[in-house]
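We store amino acids, tokens; thus:
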Amino acid sequence: MARFIYSLCVVLLLPVAVIYLLWRARKQPEYLKHWGERFGFFGHLSRPANGLLIWLHAVSVGETRAAQPLISALRERYPDHQILITHMTPTGRATSQELFGDSIAQCYLPYDTTWAMQRFLRHFSPRFGLVMETELWPNLVAACAQRDVPLMLVNARLSEKSAAGYAKLPALAKEALQGLHAIGAQSQDDADRLTALGARSPSVVGNIKFDIDAPENQIALGKNFRTQIRQRQVFLAASTREGEEALLLDAWSRNAPVGAGDTLLHSPPLLIIVPRHPQRFNDVAALVQAHDLCLQRRSENNAIEAGTDVLLGDSMGEMFAWHTLADLAFIGGSLLDFGSQNLIEACAVGTPVLLGPSTYNFADAAFEAQACGAALAIIDADDLVQKARALLHDAAALARMSEAGLRFAQQHRGATARTMELIARVVN
């Protein structure tokens, strides 16, 4: 009965979904493309000739990047299978194209109506399916069970906030979780919250994001940026969310940190802002200019000028380059209540990290990074700028944080191998 009511609500909300797509298309025209896929029509996509296909769902950019090590391992373990990756956002789809090109198939996962999910599974007939992180689709789970398609939740995380949301629909959440063939949780806390909602014996395998290797071309790009700015220090605001840039720029203008060492006192650090969502690039550019700061945009592809106050990272897929360049990084999504973006990429290349109070999406990683000295907590924008100033004056402290970050990232690798073992147990 719970799923019947849910299914009815999904159908009634389809017109709202169409309106939402049109609204998002105002700033991202890509939302106007591939509508048929969102409603379960895939006639333009063919299945592999041998019929062997593995399907993985990664809703957007973060999940797609996290899937890199897993997709590499799947290719090695199942070389005769085609891999299909599904998304819900155009940025996720673009990231998939950037990372994998045409070597894997891509499409949108349809909205969770019974008939659309049945059409999806009938068309592609995957050998098994993998859903990244926290996506629970009750009709998809039920359709997989009806067609005997093993479905697993991998790299699973469930914050207290999300768990409270699912707990409002206990019967529906329990049915979906118990319909999964296996769950690979990032941490024991995630596993405990999933179990409380009805999951059967989730395994703790760790966070696959620790297994992502920084691409050599991105490291080289970051070093090239560094040669352009010479000895000037760099403070990076990575993956910022709406509202955070204004707070940061206000504090930066009031109390901008200065460089470390006498030779740099008259050369303040370069502030780099990389917004999380590309549709906000122009808005952030206007915000920087409103603060009377000299702005340069990465998309202009010019050498970084000495007089630039703020460099806007209005590009996709270059976060490792920005972290390689930076002396210190603030991780966006943590200053306001967004739960934080990925701090693991910064630690992986030895970039010291500043984190705001909201870290529920990376609760364990954030706690452990602070405990080992790789990250430092801040309470608000003024505290962020003041701590940044102090650290940029303290080369020894930055070096200690960098070394701690590298150790922290290395010690947590191995989740991909454990996830592959979990998959093998189910598939075999």
In short: The chain has two domains: 22-207+413-427, 216-411. The chain is about 45% helix and 15% strand.
